Description:
By secondary structure, this protein is α/β, with parallel strands linked by helices. About 40% of the residues lie in helices and about 20% in strands. The protein has three domains: about 5-200, Methylglyoxal synthase-like domain (Rossmann fold, 3-Layer(aba) Sandwich); about 225-345, AICAR transformylase, duplication domain (Cytidine Deaminase, domain 2); about 375-500, Cytidine Deaminase, domain 2, CATH 3.40.140.20. Strands 10-15-14-13-11-12 form a six-stranded mixed beta sheet, with helices on both faces. The chain has a six-stranded mixed beta sheet with strand order 18-23-22-21-19-20, with helices on both faces. It has a five-stranded parallel beta sheet with strand order 4-3-2-5-6. Helix 1 (about 20-30) links the parallel strand 2 and strand 3. The model has no long low-confidence stretch (mean pLDDT about 95).
Amino acid sequence: MSDKRIKSALISVYYKEGLADIVKILQKLKVKIYSTGGTFTFINDLGIEAEKVEDLTSYPSILGGRVKTLHPSVFGGILARRENSEDLEQLSKYKIPEIDLVIVDLYPFEETVKSVDDEAEIIEKIDIGGISLIRAAAKNYNDVLTVSGRDQYPDLLNLLNGKKGFTTISERRHYAAKAFKVSSNYDTSIFKYFNRESAIPAFRESIDSFYPLRYGENPHQKGIFYGNHDQIFDKLHGKEISYNNLLDLDAALNLIDEFKSTTYVIIKHNNACGVASRTIPVEAWKDALACDPVSAFGGVIVTNKPVDEATATEIDKLFFEIIIAPDFAPSALEILKKKKNRIILLRKESVKSDQIFRSLLNGVLWQEKDNRIETEKEMRPVTKRTPQKKELEDLVFANIIVKHSKSNAIVLVKNSQLCASGIGQTSRVDALKQAIDKARSFGFDLQGSVMASDAFFPFADSVEIADKAGVTAIVQPGGSVRDQDSIEYCSANGIAMVFTGIRHFRH
């Protein structure tokens, strides 16, 4: 019979919150309880009878609490197969009681790593007995119910109340799956801690939190976000965040974090279609929108400063998907909330990440995140004319944007404003022509503008095209065998060019 009645339980938890209700119903169901250390004291203080594990094993907790439950009298009662006569004979021979329910809450290893630097303290938070209990009980799900974390207490309460202490095989298997999820996540965290210096090549990631999405990139695809975006922002208003919204948000936040002055960025399909830095926020918004008001339609807006009423009034004129900012004036929020589907996000933290994963073929690509951005001092002049102060400021601005644009990428900037970009082209010349045509279509005068390229120019054709369009300064990484062709053209035509030595491909 797949239905099993819980007659005995082993409880050993780190956190006691929510445990009282569980213990009380177990008492009501006449379940015999075995417990350890602080958990036993907690249960005893509730006036509920429990037996110490030490009395079951005839051994005290030793080695400073490192060994409490690691004993055949405990694990035999968990792992014994109830339909195996030899197992039952051995339980009887060695006076080992059957254990039908195991409730364990592991030592908080991940939390300890985040909060302390003392390795000895961290090591002591590696749970040995608890993780062994979880795995043993989950392995024997045919007979044992495993509860592997306090987040499962509400479901357990409903199960105990509704089924009067009985569980089905499917329920026990479901809890076993949860147990191995906890176990794998725990082991991954420990491995990553130890592997900080060893750098053993192995891909190990485990994320517990997740958000089901309406669909993936397209409506016919399923989608889930594994992570905790509540750490990054609070949703103040609007519809559900989608798969594509999250991609654009990631691009938006990574770009805006490169700027210190008041800046507005508009993202469309993971690329910037509007960027401007100004002293006054509303001017930054207007100039960002002026870059490409067509592409801005339905885009994602991000700023690094609070949104005031004047700026919100202007933003309200545009149809957009999302706006994210570190704060909103109450009057600004009132204006922006007028459209019920607009997603308004209050940013709380920066995106703390130093690695990138991408699935492809039958594996995963891993790389360090491109956290490098070049300062004015790192831009090495290679032409007769060096950039003037304003040109140099614009070169840094353009180089930031091109770093966050899809390759092949060319960015044109003037007066801390994106004029246009050519992105995702198979030819750098095509990217440049796209940027020039786009800038002109929106009325930009490119005379005195600067240009950034995410990689070197293999020929001088791009700098010649840029020169004829009005570009007066160029930033590129350099590194082509024909760099000198571009350098000579720029020097002969009064264009300043600087090399960074750093390529910023983004595919």
